[in-house]
Amino acid sequence: MVVVAAWMAIGSASARAATAASIVAVEGQPLTGVVVDSVSSCAIQGSSISINWGDGTTTGGTATAGSGQTCNITGSHTYLNGGRFTITVAVRDEGGASATAHEQAVVSGCSSTGSSAPATPFTPTASGLDARFVQAIYHDILGRSAAPSEIAAATNALSLGATRSQLASTLLDSNEYRAHIVTSDYASYLNRAPTPSETSAFATLLGSGVSDEGLLAQIVGSPEYFASRGNSSNDGFLSALYCEALSRSIDPLAQTDDESLLGSGVARTAIASSVFGSTEYRSLLIRGLFLHYLRRAATPGDLATWTAFMHSGGTDEQVIAAIVSSPEYDAHVNPVPIVLILHGNTLSTTLARDATLTLTVLRILPSGHAAAVLVAPPRTKLVGVVSLGFHHKGRVKLSWNRTVHNQPLRSGRYLLILKAFARHKPYHKPYHKPYRTLTLIGVSSPVLFKVH
């Protein structure tokens, strides 16, 4: 319970003005504590009490005696998003007289924090370099596996001179991808799946030249979003918009400005468009694209380059096409083969660039055969991965005592696979621990050896 207002004595036939003050709360946590005190007597038994919390939610209240002559109106509420809300308490007595009080609730926090972890790595299964690229972009862009006929058609196009950027743009310009965007936006902002007619209508809209952000503005500016996420109030709408689009609570200055615009008749769609067209939103978008497609955090240089590109008219799809046609993306899809030589307890290789090395150790099971060097269960069993540390490019020689996790290998046949990773600087995000991302840039063929 929270005491939301303290009232002057109303009496059975007349009402006097009430006083109020501001409160501070945190989203997702029930309000607690006394908000306002008064020195008047409590004489409102039998009155009807309602509390409008400013986010579109109205509840009842209870009159309780406070300290001394104080009369408090108490109620309970939990705000879903941060922002500034005007609480209105109304009391009407049995004789029809009424009194109201207003106060400000300043709510901090945001339930939406956005993604800060790289997408799960995807390893294509095809042997050809172009086919592996096709498998990767179907997985990353459309979220599904490419059919054999699609792989054949795409690799044929590449062999005839089509670029990887053109191939990615073809997928990004497809109705399937547009439907994927609509479905994702509905899930994120309306918390439901679109109907077939909604998917068709909005996919057509995207195909006519409306940007991804323009679509978002229409969804967020809709009566459904205003009612379901904003609880049919301007304060609720603004707090939900900033929390879900920018992963933070709305700041007081923006709330004052946006409330003024809404009050003057500016459409909610226009308010949403300004948010989705901001540098802050575009920076978050670029961060998400890098985490999804390159499995790493965007550097400050990446953010500056691509947000400037979008401010100059570049689209989400153009950014994605550039990312997946980059050498870095290709390194994910087609790691450079590296040669691993095992001589006694010495591992030797040559690195084309600085890298962090790991050694994957697999045991060939008794039913397996030495020729079956592909790591397909149940012929092999993972023993463990040995970290070999960071090394500079050039010739590398390492001593390995044939142990994994400080345990010597048992007698039997084993496979060794050396992997090289490029490391990136840690990425810091508020409320998240920093992490260092690694990009696979090289892998060796399996090397067979025996332990007697």
What is the count of helical runs? Answer: 14
Strand pairing plus helix content: what structural class? alpha+beta
Strand % is: 25-35%
For this structure, the quaternary state is single chain
> What is the top-level CATH class of the largest domain?
Mainly Alpha
Major sheet summary line: 6 strands, mixed
Q: What count of domains describes the coordinates? A: 3
Shape: elongated
CATH superfamily of the largest domain: Phycobilisome linker domain
Radius of gyration: 31 Å
- CATH architecture call of the largest domain: Orthogonal Bundle
Helix content: 25-40%
Total strands? 20
Fill in the CATH topology of the largest domain: serine acetyltransferase, domain 1
Can you describe this structure?
The chain is an alpha+beta fold and 452 residues long. It is 34% helix and 27% strand. A hairpin with a 5-residue loop joins strand 8 (81-92) and strand 9. The relative contact order is 0.09.
